[in-house]
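Z., the sequence and structure:
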Amino acid sequence: MGDILERKSGASKRVGLLIDYLKSQSYQVWLFTTGDAQDFRQNGVHYTYYQQSYQDYCLVNDLYKDAYQSWFDALNFETDQNHQTSENLESSEHWLPWIYYQYRFDSGFINYVKKLAKWADTVILEYPFWALTVGDICQQYQTQLIITAHDILAQQLDQNTLLGKIALTEEIKALQQADNLICVSQDDRAFLKQYHLSSLVIPNPVDINQETDEKSMEHLSLNKIKQPFCLFVGSRHDPNIEAVKIIQQIAKDFASQYRDLVCQFVIVGSCWEPEEKHNFLAKGRVSDQELSALYYRANLVLSPILSGTGTSLKTVEAMAYGKVVLGTTIAFRGYPVTSGEQCIICDRLDEYGPLIAQWLNNSQKKKNIAKNAQAFAKNYDYRHLYSSYKQLIEKSDKLIRELPEISQRQQQH
């Protein structure tokens, strides 16, 4: 979540909205993350970025790769599987499960976590990577630990491989450290239950009250954008990159098959470097104002996602703008929608061209779907969903013990 202040990726938007909610409920917030070392306050929030030394990073990484090779060799000691060893060395470069070990023995990191746990009544950990370290420290300081599982990370790997088995083991061990565990969909909740993990579903939220002044949206200059256009928004994530490649082909096929129709295919976000080629335009990162204008003026939002875990925040974000989203079943994973009512679901990529041609015009049916989509998205406003976090925070034993002291200090002032 390196772009936590920019809030461009789905994860950073979820966390950013959680910060907004906690501030609105008068909680003090200290956000600790990794990146270039810095410590500052902004808009009432304390931000600390921890930077691991390059030497520590290399040491842990080398130890992990060496241990991983030993595990693999041990499993295959009796058989000749040299060709598999080569594939295994490539697999050890994958960020899972190595990321679970990156900070586990980092004394500087551990000392920062101790400061946080001593200061806080509740620690909310986004993703489970640091959970073994943070969980142990939170127990020492009797600080409640809430872990948010944005998705089931191990599902990104083949569970029949050594890599997949290690990643799943580390993920379950990490999630077991939580006093309260949050997931984002009923499917994830069911998966966790298989491992005797009880969780509360808090879906990915949106901000329904985004500023969308229609007049400013209509008159804001959108460089190189032509009407009509289809929009895709995504961060630099493998499923998004794959989707852009699919959209490139859709754009090419559309231009040749529908010569009498003009349609531009616009990509926004770090998922693709800026590029312009015929009816395909990738803009890269844009300002929040320009993104709102693009959503507002787009004829359709496309989401031909073929893989992914958790739920897609971008999907419900587009719906919140009253847009018709044409996407795959995976794009709507975790959302109780019906094709033809709140969205259009299609898993046949060769049918996207005809569907786009059909839905470019503002028919009454399209207006109805857009209206239903916006009504659906209202159920995912962060002010409503995040009240569950508040309920958990206020059950913190540490907070309950400190309430008399806090009340006394307030009376003295």
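The CA atoms of residues 205 and 384 lie 9 Å apart. The first helix runs from residue 10 to 24.

Let me know what you think.
H.
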